[in-house]
Design goal:
By secondary structure, this protein is of the alpha+beta class. Helix content is about 45%, strand content about 20%. It folds into 3 domains: about 60 residues, Nucleic acid-binding proteins (OB fold (Dihydrolipoamide Acetyltransferase, E2P), Beta Barrel); about 60 residues, DNA polymerase, domain 1; about 50 residues, Orthogonal Bundle (Helicase, Ruva Protein, domain 3). Strands 1-2-3-5-4 form a 5-stranded mixed β-barrel.
């Protein structure tokens, strides 16, 4: 199995690139996020590789960071998610954004990816809910009296912010301000952070 390739970028397309490794060109499929972070033609590049061997083909999937490759592998465990769909999700959401969307059970974030409808998004959220903690350093909602963190997330969503974004911001603020933080302080700090 191929786990890593280092070479020179020979060609780049909408969903793949050709990496020249000592005169051998490897076609590597990548997410839009990975492709946006790769150098231009003739420049050196090192990619982490996930190799898929099938009866009729061998496909290589490339990633510039381990977190994205780990999420790719995890997404493939969900029924109905193939390699192309996993790449579309990772091209739309960073690993941290995806983790926050799953923790917040925010289906709208996941459906932003091409080829992901509401039913598949719901399945992803349900099947990966318990697996998120081991993958990414994601903030969890701090224990605050009277459910202030959940109420603050709800308030920000009602003001038009995405649930995943609101969840991530409120979780971080609650962690910084501690267990005695009040609801109005959480909302004000959340608005300030999201308004940047």
């Amino acid at each position: 199995m191929i786990a890593l390739l280092a070479g020179i970028v020979d060609q780049s397309g909408a969903d793949s690139l050709v990496l020249d490794v000592n005169g051998v060109g490897y076609l590597v499929f990548c997410s839009k996020r990975t492709l946006s972070r790769t150098p231009g033609h003739g420049e050196p590049l090192k990619l982490l590789i996930e190799t898929h061997v099938r009866e009729d083909h061998i496909h290589l999937y490339g990633f510039v960071e381990e977190a994205e490759r780990s999420w790719f592998r995890l997404l493939l465990t969900v029924q109905g998610v193939g390699a192309r769909t996993a790449l579309a999700i990772l091209g739309t959401l960073s690993p941290d954004q995806l983790a926050n969307a799953i923790l917040a059970q925010d289906k709208s974030q996941v459906t932003r990816a091409d080829g992901v409808g509401p039913k598949l998004a719901a399945r992803i959220l349900v099947e990966l809910k318990d697996k998120v903690a081991g993958l990414a350093p994601v903030p969890a909602l701090a224990e605050v009296p009277d459910g202030a963190t959940s109420d603050a997330v709800s308030a920000l969503v009602n003001l038009g912010y995405q649930r995943g974004d609101a969840y991530g911001v409120i979780a971080e603020i609650a962690r910084k301000l501690g267990p005695d933080v009040r609801l109005d302080s959480l909302i004000k700090a959340g608005l300030k952070e999201l308004g940047r």
